[in-house]
């Protein structure tokens, strides 16, 4: 989150900090990353990092998101079913990838550190929910979904089981599961 005070961020310095935080996260895990190590790797002062981010969790989440955002594009195929299926499948593939496993680590850390949980909720999960909302709103506008659809509940219905398997049961998360999940959910939310 950009600070309102002082000079604007230098794009190259910001990129260096975000890259350093992401690389350290992949190499050592969240618990071993420190602002001091990020500053050393990025060749900046800790003060520069703290000027732009309130804490380690925020800079690490921004580094993680900046590196991973291209892997989760928001589809627009003209069909809400196809869009949600692509979106949920891409999310699942990402969450089960080496980089995506960082999310489970951050969720675990967030149980003990409210700064971490706030960072992953605001910087990762809320944007994913907004993407799902956009997809469903388009489906309502095109007459593919019920006009009175509870979008928040439908988002939980479709995406919640993915996180349940990821974080609780450990059951397989693959394309087949996601397709079955989305198809079953759409039996209740689509007009057909």
TrEMBL record:
Highest taxon in the source lineage: Bacteria
Keyword DNA-binding set for record: yes
DNA-binding region: 34-53
Keywords: DNA-binding, Transcription, Transcription regulation
Gene Ontology molecular function terms on file: DNA-binding transcription factor activity; transcription cis-regulatory region binding
HTH tetR-type domain residues: 11-71
Keyword flag Ligase: no
Protein name as catalogued: TetR family transcriptional regulator
Species this chain originates from: Paenibacillus terrae (strain HPL-003)
């Amino acid at each position: 989150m950009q600070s309102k005070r002082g000079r604007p961020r230098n794009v190259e310095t910001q990129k260096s900090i975000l890259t350093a935080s992401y690389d350290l996260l992949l190499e050592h895990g969240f618990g071993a990353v420190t602002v001091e190590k990020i500053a050393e790797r990025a060749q900046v002062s800790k003060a520069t990092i703290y000027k732009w981010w309130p804490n380690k969790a925020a800079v690490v989440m921004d580094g993680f998101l900046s590196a991973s955002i291209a892997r989760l594009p928001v589809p627009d195929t003209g069909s809400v079913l196809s869009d949600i299926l692509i979106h949920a499948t891409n999310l699942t593939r990402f969450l089960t990838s080496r980089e995506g496993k960082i999310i489970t680590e951050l969720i675990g850390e967030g149980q003990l550190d409210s700064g971490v949980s706030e960072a992953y909720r605001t910087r990762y999960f809320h944007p994913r929910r907004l993407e799902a909302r956009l997809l469903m709103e388009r489906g309502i506008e095109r007459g593919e979904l019920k006009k009175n659809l509870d979008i928040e509940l439908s988002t939980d219905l479709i995406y919640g089981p993915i996180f349940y398997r990821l974080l609780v049961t450990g059951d397989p998360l693959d394309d087949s599961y996601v397709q079955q999940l989305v198809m079953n959910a759409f039996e209740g939310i689509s007009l057909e």
